[in-house]
Amino acid sequence: MTEDYFWGVTLDKTKGTEVWDPDVKPDANDSTHVFRGEHTLLVKQAVLGPEVPDGEVNVIEVEAMGYKSDIKFPVVVLKGGSGHSQCVLDLLFPDPPVTFKLVKGNGPIHLLGNHSVGIAGEGMADEEDDDEIDEEFEEEEEEVIEEEKNSVEEKKRKIAANSNSKGGKAAKRPKIDSEVRNFIFMLICLNFIKFPINII
């Protein structure tokens, strides 16, 4: 299970760099950081502040962990007074730390998104619960199979008992007169009526 939180940061000329790293050891007196787990950050939007002068270009660069090494790229470019004071993003950062840096312009630029926390140790509990459920399911399955076997054996016994009570002979089909048989055969051949072959 994850818990999602609204996340935001403002970058401007006084605070040009922000590091998102929830794994940094929290203050011992801070009770809000009791649970640790898997953290992910999803940046959804960048908004340029209204006080940005017309024509000023603002660029935000992100440095994060890549597949083989850290990567550093610009992710937001907004120009003051251009009518495009915001942009939609879809940047997922599954591993902290992530560094956001205002590399051009004075800002402010506001980054908004979601910080998700997967509760630590929960995966182990889920696996144990899954194992217990699997074991219960297998036991129930075995019981059903055993009941079906018993049912089939009971039916076999009843059939055997019925055939023994009739002198051990199988039930016979009623005899059809040869003229009636020939007539039915002729109708089938002429395709007037369709009967299963075993009637004849």
From TrEMBL:
Residues 139-174 are annotated as: Disordered. It is found in: Nucleus. Belongs to the nucleoplasmin family. GO terms for molecular function: chromatin binding; histone binding; RNA binding. One of its GO terms (cellular component) is cytoplasm. GO terms for biological process: chromatin remodeling. It comes from Aphis gossypii (Cotton aphid). This is Nucleoplasmin core domain-containing protein. Residues 147-156 have a biased composition (Basic and acidic residues). SUPFAM superfamilies: Nucleoplasmin-like core domain. Its main location: nucleus. It holds the Pfam family Nucleoplasmin. It comes from the Eukaryota. InterPro entries: Nucleoplasmin, Nucleoplasmin_core_dom, Nucleoplasmin_core_dom_sf. Residues 6-116 form the Nucleoplasmin core domain. Keywords: Nucleus.
